[in-house]
Each structure stands twice: as C-alpha cells, then as structure tokens.
Amino acid sequence: MKGYSAYLQLPQTLWYLVQATLVLAQSKQSLSLNSLSTFSGTTLSGTPLFALPSAPQLSVSFALCSAGSSARFFVSNSSAISVPSSLGGDDVFEIQLNDGYGSWTGAAPDGGTIAVEDIGQTNFEIGVSNSGQSLFCTDVMHQVLDTLPLLGDTTSNQVLLFSPPFSPPPIDQPTYPNYTLPPANLSQPSPPSTSPNYTLVLSPSSSSLTSLPQTGCSLLSTTSSGMQLSQDLWLRDADGWRYQWLMGGLTSVTNYTAYVIQDQTKVSGPIYFATKSAGFPCPLVHSLPYCPSTAFAVPLPAINTAYDSTTLPSQVSSPLLQYVSNFTTMLTTFACGRDLYSPLQTCADCQREYRKWLCSISFPRCSENPLSSSQSPSSGTQVPFPALAPPSQRNQFLPPVNYTYMTLLPCLETCNAVDRACPNFLGIKCPVPQFNAGASYGVGFVDSGEEDVLGNGKTGTAQDQWGNVWCNGF
Question: Which branch of life, at top level (predicted)?
Fold first, then answer.
C-alpha cells in the first residue's frame, strides 16, 4: 500500500504526463518486417508513434515524399522508452535526413519505437528490413544507388536510356578439346526469371528535379516527359542485363535530367543529357544481337522511330556478320584451347573485343558540335571538345543518305583492347598518338598515354553523367 499511496501523491502535472505517455504508447501503429509503409501527415495527429518488430539486426529507413518539410524522425531500440523525442536519451537516435531520406541500423531484440515530430502535412515512407547479406549487414530499403543509369544517345526528339546493370551473365570460357566460340550472329539469351522493377523518370532540367527530395516517392510523384516508344530487357555486355528505354516526343536543344527508380525506393541518378538540334538527321540504332552495345545515331535513311535488328538493311548487317565469321575461323587456327594462351586473355576475349571494335567502325556514330563549352556542373572545370570528324568511308555498305553529318570517332582504346586480347599472329596493329592516330580515333580522352598527347586522359572515360560524350566507347 505504501507504493500505491506514493503513486497517488504524484504532482498533478507529472500525473498528466504519465497518463499522456500511456495513451501514446497504446496508440502506436505496428510496422512489419521487410515491409514498406506510407503515411500522410494530413491523417496523423500529434506526434505519430510506430512500433518496430524485434530482430537481431534491423534496418529502418525514412523518405520524405514532398519538399519543404521540417519533420524529424527519432528511433529507440529500448523497451524502456515509450516515446523517443528531441529531449534525447541514451537509447534515442535522431535520424539525420540527407536529400529527403535517412536510415538507422542496429540491434532490436525487444523491438523499438519510432516517433515523428513536426510532420505537418508531409507524406512520408518508413521501410523496415532484416534481410541482407549477413547478420551484421542488412539491406536498407531507401537509398541512393552507386551505379548510375546509362545514356545511349539522343536525336533532336528521342533518347536511348538504360538502367543500371543487374544479373551478370555467366562467363563461358571454352576449353580444349571442345573449343567453340560464339557464332557471328549472336542471339540474346533468355532474360533472368526475376528482375528489379525499374521506372524511368525524365524531365527537362529546368523543372529542377534535383531540388526535390531525392527519394523514390518524391521523384515518382512528378510528371515524366516524353513518350515511351519501347521498353525491354537487354544484355549489353558482361556487366549484366539492363532495362532499355527508347523515349520520343522530346524538345530539341533542351537539357534533360533522368533518374531510374528501383522497386520504388532505390534511386539511381541523376544523369543529364541534351537533345540535338532540330536539323539533326541521323536516326538511332539499337537492339542488334550481334552488336549488343550499339545504341547511338547512325547515318542511315530516315525512319519513323529507330532501327533495330528487324529493320536494319541486310546490306549493312550481312558483311559485318561475314567479317566476324571469317575472323573467328582464322582465330581458331591458333592453339588457344590446348596451350597456355595468356594468363589474362583467351580467344573468347579476343573475339569479343574484335566484335566491339568492328561494330564501332561499321556503324559510324553521328554527332554535332556542342552548342556551348562543355563543362562539369559539379566542378565547373572545362573539359575537351568531342572527337568530331567529317564522314569517312569506313563502311562502304551503308546506304547513301541525302544529308550532311559529322561523326564521333571511336575511342582509340577500342582498338587497343583488340590488340591486347588477340594473338600476335593475327597482325592487329593500332595507330599511335604520335603518328596520326587522331585522324581516325578519339585520342587522349580515356587513357593517359604519353606526355603532350591531346587530352592526356583528362576525362578518364568516354562519357560522363553530365552528358559529355568525347569519343565512341561502345
């Protein structure tokens, strides 16, 4: 009775606080493991509370779905704390939001509690997960992915875009005595049985997508630009499968921003690109199984949408396939299946690099002069102009066109890769920078090369996320 009497004699204000805490504790909304929950500030009152499930290791992530919110998120993994708040405490963690999202990972053997202060009218998401690679590393539902989407190329009103890669294919390295290389006319293998759910978000850069919370729910709530002409899965290279989008209905000479959202919560991007001028004449070419990385504008007669393997003239594809077939026959006369060919390369690598090089010169890449000096928005640093040249006669089988155009030269590294991967008896030789390599290749953009070489590897890549493309690296 003594304890009961002391309880009754609590100060009135503290008694009210205890009762309010008990009421709040009873009104917690339970969150399930490995689930995503969406809430609206318009339907919540006071300080919303959410009960976390118990797990040896738990990841909790938060995402704001609209701009201008001052919401604060607090997590406690202690059963002794009913209402974590800005008052703090040993087992209370405030989640710092960066670009509209944040996360907490820790042990929660007895579950835990989430409290949201100053929510206002904001919509937000909470993701709870205990799945992942190990007991000490769980998968956070809301995150910005390290891998960016990939720009194929643009015309005046179209663009080819790719998602980040997933499900890398097994690398088949044939061995003696059954040393069989892939056929000249490759076919796309069956896509994986399961794949991430990717959504493309595309908008003019003037719409300031980057000023919004960089969360999936925020970006997906915007109106995407353009008209989707096609979407499919495509195996470009050994990096893995990608979603491929052909978008039309864009505006010429316009800067665009693109994101790819995985499973509604993981954000890849942004990347930037600009459409060509209204008079740009070359159509896009894509989805060629025998040239899987080809996805750019090529000097071909006009077509309603873009060329693919079903519409490309056979007068272009047939000689290319014959070249690969003849090269493969010659390559397999070398004892690369029985003897030690190289500790780093195989004949399969040689054939693959030759195919990439052949496709890059068989399909000249159309381009045009940049409308202004190209620079990186992140640093403002001036970068080289692209390796543009007048049309060459590299591929005599291309049908004649009634327009003028400029070509973006292949990167010199595409030739060097063939030289490195193939046996010496094939006699593959690439030009060097000191002796006119720049007449037929983009030189000095990717590899550093030697001193006083144009570019000297300043960009370190064939293209970047800001839409700068210096040489054809596909």
Answer: Eukaryota
> Quick one: 76 and 188 in the same domain?
no
- What is the distance between the alpha carbons of residues 258 and 280, in angstroms, rounded to a whole number? 22
187/127 same-domain check: no
Taking residue 325's Cβ as centre, other Cβ atoms within 10 Å add up to 13
83 within a domain of the structure (yes/no)? yes
Please, are residues 162 and 244 in contact by the beta-carbon 8 Å criterion?
A: yes
Phi and psi at residue 218, to the nearest 5°: -70, -45
**454 lies in a domain?**
no
DSSP 400: P
Phi and psi torsions of 168, nearest 5°: -60, 140
Q: Are residues 375 and 238 both part of a single domain? A: yes
CA distances from 302 to 281, 317, 361, 423, 468 (A): 7, 18, 20, 41, 25
Q: Which element (helix H / strand E) includes 247?
A: strand 240-248
Structure tokens of 381? 């640093």
Q: Which residues, including other chains, have CB under 8 Å from residue 448's CB and lie 6 or more apart?
A: 456, 457
- For residues 130 and 212, membership in a common domain is answered with no
CB contact set of 193 (below 8 Å; sequence gap of 6+): none
Q: Examine the domain organization and report whether 70 and 168 are in the same domain.
A: no
Over residues 91-148, the pLDDT tens digits come to: 899 999 999 999 999 999 999 999 999 988 899 999 999 875 444 445 899 999 999 9
- Total count of domains within the chain: 2
CATH number at residue 7: 2.60.120.380
CB atoms within 10 A of CB 203: 19
The answer to whether residues 82 and 188 belong to one domain is no
Q: Is residue 303 part of a domain?
A: yes
| Domain that residue 194 falls in | 150-439
* Pair (282, 174) in one structural domain: yes
Take residue 344 and report the two structure tokens written for it. Answer: 């780093």
- For the entire predicted model, the pTM comes to 0.87
Interaxial angle between packed helices 347-362 and 314-331, expressed in degrees from 0 to 180 and rounded to the nearest 10: 150
Q: Rg for the chain (alpha carbons), in Å? A: 29
Q: 137 and 163: one domain?
A: no
Token pair listed for 424: 């010496």
Distance, CA of 54 to CA of 56 (rounded, Å): 7
pLDDT digits (tens, 9 = 90+) for 401-460: 999 999 999 999 999 999 999 988 899 999 988 888 889 999 888 876 544 455 456 678
